[in-house]
Each structure stands twice: as C-alpha cells, then as structure tokens.
Amino acid sequence: MSRVSIIIPTLNEAKCLGRTLRHLSLLTPPAWEVLVVDGGSSDETIAIAQTAGVQVISAKQCGRAAQSNQGAEVATGEILCFLHADTLVSDDLVTVIEQTLADKTVVAGGFISLMAGEKTTRWGVSLHNWLKTYYAPLLFRPHLFFQGLRLLFGDQVIFARRADFWECGGFDSNLPIMEEADLCIKIVRRGKIRLVNRIVQSSDRRVAKWGFFKATAIYLYIGFLWGVGVSPQYLKQFYKDIR
C-alpha cells in the first residue's frame, strides 16, 4: 500500500475547514498524513486544524502554488494529493488514488468536481467544468491532448506520485492563478493524466457570490485568455478570493 500525503493550502478557511477535515478523518484506509499549510489566516483556521490533530505548517510564501509546494517538500508519502479546504472527498479516496496510479502509464489524476452549496447543486457549472477538462486541452494544446493531457483544476483534488511531481518542477510558485493547469502541461510529458469517474464536492461560494452567468463568463474569459498565452498575473485581477 502506498503512502498518500494530503496537502491543504489555507487562508481564512474557518467556515469550511472543519467539515473537510472531518471527512478526511473517515478515510479507509487513512491517509499517511494530512498537512495544512497556512498562509497567515486571521480567523480560526489554525485552531481548527490543530484541534483536528493534523500537522500545521506556516507558509514561507503566501499563495496557493507556493503553499502547496511547501507542503510537498515536508510530506513524506510517495503520493501527493492536493486538496482545497472547501472540497469534500469520499471515504475511499486513498484506495481510488492508489488504484489509478497502479497504471504506470498514468502520471497524475483528479476527480469530477460537483459544485454545491447549502441549498442547491450547481449542475450547469459542474457540467461545464467537467467538459472543460477535455475541451480546453483539445482546443489549446491538441498535440498534448492526444498524449493524455487533461486540464485539472484545484477543486478536482489533483494527485500525483511525489517523484513525478518534483521531476517536472512542481507548481510554479510565481503563478497567482492557473497553477494547476500549468502543472498538468508540465507533468503530462511524463505520462497520461486521468480524470477519475468519481465525484468530489466543492463549495459554490464563488457562483453564489457572482451568480451563474457572471461566474460562467469569468471562467470562460480567464480560460480563453490563458489558453492563448495571456499572463496569469494579469488574469488574477478577474478572479478575486472569496471566503
């Protein structure tokens, strides 16, 4: 059995972290370790993580990419799993990850993200996000699509072998957005990326704040501009943090 390290970058995630960690406590088999890499939270995020008994690391550099890399440096498992604080996973997560990576031609993977809130499930946005995994690489990187490129994003719970993650350089800590897509483009040169036919549940807080049409327009706008080479530093202004 492989050792799976789960890495959670956080910044003021007190509203959702406790529930996420409770789900992780039910994993069967359990994760090898859970590491929360905090970027300087001013709410109860750190206290919640400490109460749950997981390892808490203070980030040297704030930003999801940099915090994820720092967690990967500290992690001791052979497999790294990057989980957003507002995403819930099933109790067989570790088994699914191990079974997926048992195929040596698969270098990384992720799940189908079902976006939901307290009172609704965002079926339309979730469907688009699923389709985007396929149509975005086919549209913008067709040569890599046929090599196995699938564009995964953070709420899809990306996982990879530790060795492959670092061989391709990990996340680019200088990217404020689209760091997961950048990782996919780098790591696919070492093998295929697989979208696992299983669901994880992510928060709809952005769609709830922006509304369906505005959120969809922002996602499409950022995705298209990134695909044609616009700087993620420029694109970040359209994708504000929402807690």
UniProtKB/TrEMBL annotation:
PANTHER family per record: GLYCOSYLTRANSFERASE (PTHR43646), GLYCOSYLTRANSFERASE 2-LIKE DOMAIN-CONTAINING PROTEIN (PTHR43646:SF2)
Organism classification: Bacteria, Bacillati, Cyanobacteriota, Cyanophyceae, Nostocales
KW Isomerase (keyword) present: no
InterPro entries given in the database record: Glyco_trans_2-like, Nucleotide-diphossugar_trans, Trfase_2_rSAM/seldom_assoc
Subcellular location field: Cell membrane
Protein name: 4,4'-diaponeurosporenoate glycosyltransferase
UniProt GO cellular component terms: plasma membrane
Family membership noted in the UniProt record: Belongs to the glycosyltransferase 2 family. CrtQ subfamily.
Gene3D superfamilies membership: Spore Coat Polysaccharide Biosynthesis Protein SpsA, Chain A
UniProt KW DNA repair keyword: no
Residue ranges occupied by any Glycosyltransferase 2-like domain in the UniProt entry: 5-135
Transmembrane stretches, start-end: 211-229
Keywords in alphabetical order: Cell membrane, Glycosyltransferase, Membrane, Transferase, Transmembrane, Transmembrane helix
This protein's pathway: Carotenoid biosynthesis; staphyloxanthin biosynthesis; staphyloxanthin from farnesyl diphosphate: step 4/5
Pfam families the UniProt entry points to: Glycos_transf_2
GO MF annotation terms: glycosyltransferase activity
Function description: Catalyzes the glycosylation of 4,4'-diaponeurosporenoate, i.e. the esterification of glucose at the C1'' position with the carboxyl group of 4,4'-diaponeurosporenic acid, to form glycosyl-4,4'-diaponeurosporenoate. This is a step in the biosynthesis of staphyloxanthin, an orange pigment present in most staphylococci strains.
SUPFAM superfamilies tied to this protein: Nucleotide-diphospho-sugar transferases
